[in-house]
Amino acid sequence: MSKPKNISKIRNIGIMAHIDAGKTTVTERILYYTGRSHKIGEVHDGEATMDWMQDEQDRGITITSAVTYCQWKTASIQIIDTPGHVDFTVEVERALRVLDGAIGVFCAVGGVEPQSETVWRQADRYKVPRMAFINKMDRTGADFFAACDSIREKLSANPVMIQVPIGAEDRFQGVIDLLTMEQIAWNDETLGAEYTAGPIDNAFRELAEEYRDKLLEAVSELDDDIMEKYLGEEDISVDELRAAIRAATIRRDMVPVLCGSALKNKGIQPLLDAIEYYLPSPKDVPPVKGEHPDTGDILEFKPEKNGPLAALIFKVSMIEGRKLSFARIYSGKIASGGDVFNPALKRKEKLSRILRMHANKRERLDEASAGDIVGIVGLKNSVTGDTLCNPDHPVFLEKMEYAQPVISIAIEPKTHADQEKLDDVLEKFMIEDPTLKVSKEEETGQTILSGMGELHLEIIISRMIKEFNTSVNVGKPQVVYREIITAPARGQAVFEQEIQGKSHYANVTVALNPMVRGQGVTFKSLAPEEKIAPQYIQNIETGIRGSLDGGFLKGYPIVDVEIVLVDGFSEEGKTSELGFGVCASMAVKEALKNAKMALLEPIMDVEVFVPDANMGDAIADLNARGGRVESITPKSDIQVVKAVVPLSRMFGYSTALRSATQGRGTFTMQFKSFDTV
Ligand SMILES: Nc1nc2c(ncn2[C@@H]2O[C@H](COP(=O)(O)OP(=O)(O)OP(=O)(O)O)[C@@H](O)[C@H]2O)c(=O)[nH]1
C-alpha cells in the first residue's frame, strides 16, 4: 500500500559520473543505509543490487538506467542510476529528462574526468540543479580541494564546499559539516550505519573556521540577507544558511560540494540529508510544457495530484518477455487497472499494474501520482518518448531526440533455429533502445545492426547469447556513412501505369541543392497549384524522403540537401497520390544519377590520456590514423591529448594504446560530426 505523499518531499535525482568514479558503490550504500537492502552488494563481487542485468554483473558496469526508490527521514528519494560510458549517452539523456536534480560523483584522485564533463554539459542543457560528491577520499593521491578546483575550472560551475574532509588517503577519518560546525565520524564495525556528530578536534579547528568563512562569503554573494548578516557579523542560523544554499542550488548559481568514501562507508548519510536540504522537489522546478496535439497550443502542467494527467514514458524494458514501461508522472494520477490516453496512438491503453521499482525487485502500487517515477505493466503499443494523458486533456510532452548511429556490424544466425529467434529478439531490443537500428542487406541477406559505438553493439550481441540463447556470427564493425550531393542537380520522371484497372499518370521535376553540414533534409514546393493540387504535396514529400533514406552511392542515407519540387502535372482522370508519390522518387533517382556525390564519415572527438614518456608515440599514432591533434595539456604526471579522428581509423585503438603505454594510457571518444571522406 502506498502512503499519501507530500510532493514537496519527493526528490527525483540522478547520480552521474565518469566511469569508475563510484556511482554504483554510492548508490549501494544509499540503499543500505535507507534500509531498502539488507546487505551491501559490492561491485567487484558482481553482487551490486542496481547492476542486475547479467551483463552488467559480468562486466562490473552499469548499462541500463534503473530507477530505485528509498525513504530517508522525511524524504522520498527516487534514484535514476545512469551509466558512465559514452556509448550509452542516450540512457543519460533519458534520465536527465525526467530528473529534478542530480549528484555528480567525482573521484578525489582524478577530479573532473572527460566523461563527467560530457554528462555535466548534458545536465547543463537540461538545466538540472546539482550537488557534487567527491568520492574515494581514502585513495592514495586523494585531494578534495584539487577536485573542487577542477569542478570550477573544467565545468565552469560554482562549487561551494559545505564540508571539509578530516584527513585524506589512508588517514581519511570523516568530515566536518561547515554549517553545523560538527565533526562526523563513522563506526566501521556497523559498516558505517552508525555515526556520530560532535565537537571539532582542536587539530582541525583552524581548517574548519577557514572554510566556514569561505562558505559564508560564497553564500553572501548569492543571498542579500546572508550578506547583511555576514557583514554585520551577526549570527546566522543553520536553517537560514540551508535555505539560502537551497535557493541558490535550485537557481543553479552554486553546486554544494560534499565528500567521503563510499567504499569505506563514510559520508553517505550527510549526502542523503543534503539531497533533502538542497535538491529540488517536483514543485521547485518549472512546470513541464507540452503541445496540444490538434491546436498546437502550448500547455503547462503543474505538479498537482488532482490536475490533468501528464506522464512521459522515458524508457521501455523487456523483462522476462514482458514489456515494462518507465514513466515520470508530472501531473495527475494513474491507477492500477485504469486507462490512459496515448495521443500518438490516438487511443487508450490499459495499465494492468503499477510498480515501484527497487532495482530488480518491485512493489505493486494501487496508484501513482504527480512527482512519481514508476514502472507500468500493460502498455501494449506505447513506446519510449510517448506521452500518457487524459483523453479530455490531450498533450504531447516534448519528445526526446537521439543521436544517429555511427557504427554497424553484419550478423548472421548460426543455425536455422537461431534465424527464427533473431527477428523476435531484435524487435525486443529495438523497443528498449531507440539508438539501435536494424536493417537487411539486400544483396547478402545479412542483418545489419547499427549503434552508437563498438561497446554498444558488443553488449547487444552478448545479451542475445546470454539472455535469449541466440547465436550469431558477427562481422567486423563498419562505419556508418552518409551521402551528400556536392553540386545542384535536376531530374524529371514520368510515371504511367495501370493499377487495378485504373490508369495513373504523373510527371514530376525536382531540383536538389546541397546544404551546409548538419542541415538534414528540407523540402519545398514551387510547383503551381493548378498543376499539382496541394493535397498531393505531402505524399510527394514522403516519397522523396523515403528514397533519400535508401541512399544512392552505397545505400547510406542522403543528408544536407534541399529538395525543391519544381514542376509537375497529371492528366485528366489519371491524377492520384500514388502516382505523384512514386513519380517524385523516380525524379529524385534521375537527379541523383546526374549529381556529383560524396560520402561523409563520422568524425570523433578523441581525448587520450598518456604518461609523459609515451606522448611522442601516441601523437605519431594519432597522426598515422589521419587525426588532427588540437591540444595537449599536462595533468599531474600524464598528458591529455585532444584530437579529432575519423571513426573508421579508430577501430582497435584501445588495444593499440594499451600495448604502447604498458596499460597506462586511456582514452574516450565521442561523435563530433559527419565530414567528407
Ligand atoms: N578506494 C575506493 N574505491 C572505491 C570507492 N568507491 C568505489 N570504489 C571502487 O571503484 C570501482 C568503481 O566503482 P563503481 O561504483 O562501479 O563505479 P561506477 O561509477 O558505478 O562505474 P560504472 O557503473 O562502470 O559507470 C569499484 O571497484 C569500487 O569498489 C571509494 O570510495 N574508495
Key descriptive features of the protein:
single chain; 677 residues; alpha+beta; Rossmann fold; Elongation Factor Tu (Ef-tu), domain 3; Alpha-Beta Plaits; seven-stranded mixed sheet; six-stranded antiparallel sheet; 15 helices; 38 strands; 27% helix; binds guanosine-5'-triphosphate
How would you summarize what this structure contains?
By secondary structure, this protein is an alpha+beta fold. It is built from 15 helices and 38 strands.
Question: What does this 3D model show about the protein?
Answer:
- Belongs to the TRAFAC class translation factor GTPase superfamily. Classic translation factor GTPase family. EF-G/EF-2 subfamily.
- Keywords: Cytoplasm, Elongation factor, GTP-binding, Nucleotide-binding, Protein biosynthesis.
- Pfam families: EFG_C, EFG_III, EFG_IV, GTP_EFTU, GTP_EFTU_D2.
- InterPro entries: EFG_II, EFG_III, EFG_III/V, EFG_V, EFG_V-like, EFTu-like_2, G_TR_CS, P-loop_NTPase.
- One of its GO terms (biological process) is ribosome disassembly.
- The structure is a single chain.
- The chain contains 15 helices and 38 strands.
- The protein is α+β, with helices and mostly antiparallel strands and 677 residues long.
- The chain has 5 domains: 272 residues, Rossmann fold (3-Layer(aba) Sandwich); 110 residues, Elongation Factor Tu (Ef-tu), domain 3 (Beta Barrel); 74 residues, 2-Layer Sandwich (Alpha-Beta Plaits); 112 residues, Ribosomal Protein S5, domain 2; 77 residues, Alpha-Beta Plaits (2-Layer Sandwich).
- A 7-stranded mixed sheet has the order 2-3-1-4-5-11-6, with helices on both faces. Strands 20-19-22-15-14-23 form a 6-stranded antiparallel sheet.
- The chain is globular.
- The chain binds guanosine-5'-triphosphate (GTP).
- Guanosine-5'-triphosphate binds next to helix 1.
